[in-house]
């Protein structure tokens, strides 16, 4: 038995995708043609014996206007997945004299009755709702070229569809070549040549599915007025259970991704010289994912496609000291990672005239890998959020106290926002102010002494992390710098303005980063090769090249 898919264009000018699967779902053929004669030449070897041909195009159209009953019924079920059909009627020129689909079936001598038991037959199918069911999608993938859809979006969505297909079909070399074409596409038309063939493979699999699992297949409409065959839409409970099972399988990789993102974000912030309190991360637990996936509103699931719509499966949290650092962290992460979404929840709360939850949420990815939600907030915002979450979601608030608690949480949020503003003012006034510098001829340089010295040396610089002062103070002896006087002599020979111009800082760097660059300018390769810099030599060499112009 051969299972054939035809993504049939309604006219001869557009390409038609063809695909053939055997009973083991192995891809035997995939191609694109235009004319009926080319369809006949390509598929004849596969349809001479037992076959089921799935055609993505109307086979039976008898209504003069509007849409067919089958289209109306299918759209009613799949509209929420954005998988509704286009209307077919004889008022359209392409259906005025019958359908091309019926002519192709007649050319091969195929029975078009969906209830037929003959060995050589054809059915009408529609890939979009089929992908929703087969791959558990909450929305159809947006790989079709339409106004407002970028080349990058079309490419990523088509590659995602191909990933899904490869889970149910044993592909071949031609398929691999199609994937390469998609990855290297520079025009939307390059993707169009491939998408018809991918759709044809989906059609062929729907034919296999309908033959093997008729009890899991729905036929909308009938032979007399037109029909569409597609895998049956499961109930919400089945979808949620399948999503939880898949997340359980993926959970180890999510844990690994969380560790990698924490290391990456820490490296990016340290390289930028931005001050922060902590960077932590986690993979969402299976229990937490299951609870979130099962949420409903008025009996309707909140997430139609939990695996795609629950975006905090990998979470990273950056805690800063003051609010201005939140914006700096978001900016530097945006320059190094691909930002899919950026929401300032504090700004959204303020726009509603309220005090409450405040946090910057970035949805990021890197090199097409797994996404992560990065939450950036101040230590005071974090304290409020953690306490509020603990009380509201983990504790029980008596109904008689609910309104009073709401008022008190709002009051606390307002006070903390004021405190954040005051902390920012304190830091801004300290920056650039007079500093009582330590004696510069004392032997040995402690982190505290170095911090005070750098505050005077770089009065416009941001504060750096406490452990960073200790780290760079530990490097100085490797350069035979044991006193602040010796350090001052080194820095006196460095053109600080030139270093700043060459490095072209996109955000105010911390004092330790300023010293780091000054030592790099002063000692060059010797500084790069210090044992204490072994973990970051590639970064330092890149910086040194930029510094040398």
TrEMBL record:
Species whose genome carries this gene: Nocardioides hankookensis
InterPro entries, A to Z: DUF429, NT_sf, RelA_SpoT
Residue intervals of the RelA/SpoT domain: 281-399
Alphabetical list of SMART domains matching this protein: RelA_SpoT
Protein name: DUF429 domain-containing protein
One matching Pfam family: RelA_SpoT
Domain of life: Bacteria
